[in-house]
From TrEMBL, chain A:
Keyword Oxidoreductase: yes
SUPFAM superfamilies, per the entry: CO dehydrogenase molybdoprotein N-domain-like, Molybdenum cofactor-binding domain
Protein name: Carbon-monoxide dehydrogenase large subunit
Keywords noted in UniProt: Molybdenum, Oxidoreductase
SMART domains cross-referenced by the UniProt entry: Ald_Xan_dh_C
Lineage: Bacteria, Pseudomonadati, Pseudomonadota, Alphaproteobacteria, Rhodobacterales
Gene Ontology MF annotations: iron ion binding; oxidoreductase activity
Ranges of residues in domain Aldehyde oxidase/xanthine dehydrogenase a/b hammerhead: 21-139
From TrEMBL, chain B:
Keywords from the named record: FAD, Flavoprotein, Oxidoreductase
GO MF, one example: FAD binding
Residue stretches making up the FAD-binding PCMH-type domain: 1-166
Taxonomic lineage from the root: Bacteria, Pseudomonadati, Pseudomonadota, Alphaproteobacteria, Rhodobacterales
Native source species: Donghicola tyrosinivorans
Pfam annotation, one family: FAD_binding_5
PANTHER family (UniProt xref): XANTHINE DEHYDROGENASE SUBUNIT C-RELATED
Top-level lineage group: Bacteria
Protein name: Carbon-monoxide dehydrogenase medium subunit
InterPro entries: CO_DH_flav_C, CO_DH_flav_C_dom_sf, Diverse_Substr_Oxidored, FAD-bd_PCMH, FAD-bd_PCMH-like_sf, FAD-bd_PCMH_sub1, FAD-bd_PCMH_sub2, Mopterin_DH_FAD-bd
Length: 787, 261
């Protein structure tokens, strides 16, 4: 029987009422009396030397409050990078300056050069057109391999080259991996591109800076996934504002997908300018600005080799990846192709030897950073494509080849540093075969062929590392932050509860799911519990939401804090019931003396805590509020198996997805409806990457896919009805909820399934096509079939 | 956008008078013009709306000719042009519901976007483009990318489509914009078959005359066997090479004939 409340119940998302009725409070809904508007004048060339900026005429334009250029930010910090990668030779990565407004040079189309603050956006924009710019265009580097050539134009003149780092992992394994590949019975090699994506949250980025002269306090309202991280980075590293004088608020946020993790120039600018102008300053990105200023995702070029012995056991993997950093290092950019990618290269398989080489490269393009999955989709895509290709080359069943090489005993220490605590890859594959109706595929293929179409089936597995992360571990790996989280459970006098959490909900449904956990622990109704998030002045210092971490990390902190509440409440109850504390049980919103009918209601205990007339004041303080910080001891490792079935029109190359099935192991599940929604959204984004989305620059660094006229987002009719299953549950062994995280799985697991299916369809038509790079647009598929 | 004056005349005569100003520009459904203004790529001093002129709206039959007012939105054509099903179907697949409820046939024909749907229907139907001052045959009207026979200040008030014996439009969509990557409109009349292609050519909408000759002799897909369009002069962009577009013209034409016959 499905539960109707608490952990495991499909409680309806309470936040959707305000989102769907227009009552949400997004950053752009915040308007402060006296507010001015900023328009950023952005570079229209990819690379250029700024000879001069003349703002004198523009400054005289109607409504102009003040015009800022890079010169106004001399002496102010640049945007910091939050992760330092050490290269193969023990040297730190090359880390260029990242000014708030361009200084000396512009380095990508969209790089902000000047900012006009005016009474209205219209006036700011008019004045920006009157700024006289003298920019000497320089040759741009766009292609990563070209950027590493001797004599290539340098993105940053003060660096030795465009190479950010050359990372080897595990360096000590390299010789053994080379040897194993040399001696292998079979080696499958695949070169592929993981296409650059633009995150495109429905809500573009917005920032409103405010400054109070009364108490010298700055406030930033911003579209962020992690307000405390922004407060720390912006306060400590950019503007030098101490924490107690800086408040960062991320109210309702309309989708993040990673691109709203990072600290952006516009946030620092609005905070800075509000104080300089003594007026609130607002910026709302247009969609065009979003394309050229939101951090992009993916953009890897990889060669992977998979070695197998004569019995088709995997013996070694070697990869070489070029990872585009763009023109500057975005906040967590260096970690994505390294520690979030290399550590996942074992996948679901017992490959004993793995070596990953990553060259991170600066180019004259928008910075690239984490996007839903961040490194793990890139790892999964390579691995699951090369395994599929190997099966085809060896003439064996791709599912059987996977099963043969599955990890079967846990915990399992991979050769790439991480230890999987639990999982059951056979179970998810069994479940997939059932829910995807693999047995019926041949009949469906025949039906497609009868109508002149080709039909293909693609299967893959995935594993990811979520619940980021143990702070001491990531610290050793170069993170310049801790990655714990925090929650405060504030029980009010009448028994209602406010839970202040460090996690931030921007679509995930925390306001519904988190109360389910607390309600379950106390046996009270979910409606008595409210989640407070997004305001650094209200919530404890938590690290925000990304990497499918909110429930596993912040949810665990909330459990710990609730346990403290229960412990104290039992003390109060034992006093009220005149019983021993050890005999008190919590159930159904009551505290009962075990084995008796003596009880006291939750609300009577909470009232006693705040009206302590009859209260053990000599033993405990009044009040009922507890905070806990939780730092996990390991990542969590969700896993699963996905299946995609496509139909292909051989005359046009058009691919349609007919069926898609997912069997995931997320450990315990708090709200199955929300989990399914997360998987649906993730798969849609994965299908978007596989078939549609592509961020393209020309050789001069002009962004060709700069609007929805050329950047293809998935629409409802591009995706099928999904079959998703999460009944295979191996609970996480090291967090109190046994949860693993589900936010990114769909985006990680789906691209290889789609591509494997398209290749299968083409092969079924008699064409020996082994690979096509994403997106598998009609043109690309058709062209591949002509060769 | 930049600031501009706005007028909304009630008659064609008033609209023509309002457009006499040098910097005035007509505004129909605004599906191209408004985004252009938002990007500050145009700076008209005055916009003259054509959407409140009753005599420019509506769908009616006159003998065997379907007449559509220039300011008629696509959604109305989709709903009311049942006398010409292929045209109604074309209108029902332009853009999304918001576009179809704002965008107009006159606006589309006047803009002559090389990937728009309507120009192919007008050209394949041998339609007559009626303006405030004259009637122009479709063959004379479309003159290349965004180029038409319209003079400055001239308004498309009506488009007249002779209803064919059989017709069909096949659109292969560009994945991002869902404009036509290649669109082919085939119309069969008593005196022959006309085939017009949109989305494909650097010269805008054009007639595929070899296909017309073959289909006039034998209106079946097999009549097109062995015929192909040269990739020379075809559009090449992110979404399709000239070769791919040339290939799709053949595929879409066959499908249109199969669907129509």
């Amino acid at each position: 029987m499905p539960k109707d409340s608490g952990i495991g119940a499909a409680s309806k998302r309470r936040e959707d009422v305000r989102f769907l009725t227009g009552a949400g409070n997004y950053t752009d809904d915040i308007n402060i009396y006296g507010q001015a508007y900023v328009y950023f004048l952005r570079s229209d060339v990819a690379h250029g030397k700024i000879n001069s900026i003349d703002t004198s005429a523009a400054a005289e334009m109607p409504g102009v409050v003040r015009i800022f250029t890079g010169a106004d930010f001399e002496g102010v910090g640049g945007l910091p990078c939050g992760w330092q990668v050490t290269d193969r030779h023990g040297q730190p990565m090359q880390e260029p300056a990242h000014p708030v407004l361009a200084q000396g040079k512009v380095r990508h189309v969209g790089d902000p050069i000047a900012a006009v603050v005016a009474d209205s956006l219209q006036e700011a924009r008019d004045a920006a057109e009157a700024i006289e710019l003298d920019i000497e265009e320089l040759p741009a580097v766009v292609n990563m391999k070209a950027a590493l050539q001797e004599g290539a134009p340098k993105v940053h003149d003060d660096l030795t080259s465009n190479l950010c780092y050359d990372w080897g992992f595990v360096e000590d394994n390299k010789a053994a991996v080379d040897e194993a590949i040399k001696n292998a019975a079979h080696v499958t090699t695949l070169e592929l591109v993981n296409n650059r994506l633009v995150a495109n949250p429905m809500e573009p980025r917005v920032a409103v800076g405010d400054y109070s002269r009364a108490n010298d306090e700055s406030t930033l309202y911003t579209t962020s996934q992690n307000p405390h991280v922004i407060r720390l980075l912006m306060g400590a590293f950019v503007l030098g504002i101490p924490e107690h004088k800086l408040r960062v608020v991320a109210p309702d946020v309309g989708g993040g997908f990673g691109t709203k993790i990072f600290h952006y120039a516009e946030e620092a600018f609005c905070t800075f300018a509000a104080k300089k102008c003594n007026r609130p300053v607002k910026w709302t990105a247009s969609r065009s600005e979003a394309f050229m200023s939101d951090a992009h995702g993916r953009d890897h070029v990889t060669k992977i080799e998979l070695a197998l012995d004569a019995d088709n056991n995997f013996t070694a993997i070697r990869t070489e990846t070029y990872a585009n950093m763009g023109a500057y290092l975005s906040t967590f950019a260096p970690s994505v192709p390294t520690w979030l990618h290399g550590t996942l290269m074992a996948g679901n398989y017992r490959t004993p030897l793995i070596y990953v080489n990553v060259k991170a490269v600066f180019t004259n393009t928008v910075p690239v950073d984490a996007y839903r999955g961040a490194g793990r989709p890139e790892a999964t895509y390579q691995l699951e494509r090369v395994v599929d290709k190997a099966a085809r080359e060896l003439g064996v069943d791709p599912i059987a080849l996977r099963r043969q090489n599955f990890i079967s005993e846990f915990p399992y220490a991979t050769p790439v540093a991480v230890e999987y605590d639990t999982g059951n890859y056979f179970a998810t594959m069994d479940k997939l075969e059932e829910v995807a109706d693999l047995a019926g595929f041949e009949a469906r293929r025949k039906a497609s062929e009868a109508s002149g179409k080709l039909r293909g089936l693609g299967v893959n597995c995935y594993i990811e590392a979520c619940g980021i992360a143990p702070s001491n571990l990531v610290g050793q790996l170069g993170a310049r932050a801790g990655l714990y989280d925090a929650a405060t459970v504030r029980v009010n006098a009448t028994g209602t509860i406010s839970v202040m959490v460090g996690a931030h909900s921007h679509g995930q449904g925390h306001e519904t799911a988190f109360p389910q956990v607390v309600a379950d622990m106390l046996g009270i109704d979910e409606s008595m519990i409210e989640i407070v998030h997004g305001d650094s002045s209200k919530i404890p210092f938590g690290m925000g939401t990304y990497g499918s971490r909110s429930l596993a990390v912040c949810g665990s902190a909330m459990v710990k804090a609730t346990e403290k509440i229960i412990k104290k409440a039992k003390k109060i109850a034992s006093h009220l019931l005149e019983a021993s504390e050890a005999d008190i049980e919590v159930k159904d919103g009551k505290f009962t003396v075990a084995g008796t009918d003596k009880s006291v209601a939750w609300g009577d205990v909470t009232l006693a805590a705040y009206v302590p007339h009859n209260y053990p004041l000599e033993d405990i303080e009044p009040g009922l509020e507890e905070t806990a910080f939780y730092d996990p001891s390991n990542f969590t490792y969700p896993s699963g198996a996905y299946c995609c079935e496509v139909e292909l029109d051989p005359d046009t190359g058009k691919v349609t997805i007919e069926r898609f099935a997912a069997a995931d192991d997320f450990g315990n599940v708090v709200n199955p409806m929300i989990v399914e929604g997360q998987v649906h959204g993730g798969i849609a984004q994965g299908i978007g990457q596989a078939l549609l989305e592509n961020c393209v620059y020309d050789d001069e660094g002009q962004l060709l896919s700069a609007s929805y006229m050329d950047y293809a987002m998935p629409r409802a009719d591009d995706v099928p009805f999904y079959v998703v299953d999460h009944s295979c549950q191996t609970p996480c062994t090291h967090n109190p909820l046994g949860v693993k995280g589900c936010g990114e799985a769909g985006a990680i697991g789906s691209p290889p399934a789609v591509v494997n299916a398209v290749i299968d369809a083409i092969q079924s038509g008699g064409k020996n096509v082994l690979h096509i790079d994403m997106p598998l647009s009609p043109q690309r598929v058709w062209a591949a079939m002509q060769d | 956008m930049y600031a501009f004056d706005f007028e909304q005349p009630k008659t064609i005569a008033e609209a023509v008078a309002a457009l006499a100003d040098d910097e005035a520009q007509p505004l129909s459904g605004g599906q191209t013009l408004i985004p252009t203004l938002k990007q500050r790529l145009a700076m008209p001093s005055k916009l003259v709306s054509l959407t409140a002129i009753p005599e420019m709206k509506g769908v009616c039959m006159n003998g065997n000719t379907l007449c559509i007012g220039g300011a008629t939105p696509h959604a109305v054509v989709a709903a009311e042009a049942s006398a010409y099903p292929a045209l109604a179907a074309l209108a029902s697949n332009i853009g999304d519901p918001a576009v179809r409820n704002r965008g107009t046939i006159g606006g589309s024909i006047a803009n002559n976007d090389p990937a728009a749907c309507y120009p192919s229907a007008a050209l394949a139907s041998g339609a007559t483009i009626v303006t405030n001052s004259r009637e122009i045959a479709a063959d004379d009207y479309f003159q290349g990318l965004f180029q038409t026979a319209l003079e400055e200040g001239e308004i498309v008030t009506e488009v007249r489509f002779p209803v064919p014996q059989a017709a069909n439009y096949q659109k292969f969509v560009q994945p991002a914009s869902r404009f036509a990557l290649v669109g082919v409109f085939v119309a069969k009349y008593a005196d022959g078959v006309r085939v017009a292609v949109t989305g494909a050519s650097n010269d805008g909408v054009f007639r595929w005359t070899e296909a017309e000759a073959a289909l006039s002799a034998n209106f079946s897909p097999s009549a097109l066997d062995g015929l192909s369009v040269s990739a020379d002069g075809m559009i090449g962009d992110l979404h399709g090479t000239p070769e791919y577009r040339a290939h799709l013209i053949g595929v879409m034409t066959k499908r249109a004939v199969a669907a129509a016959s």
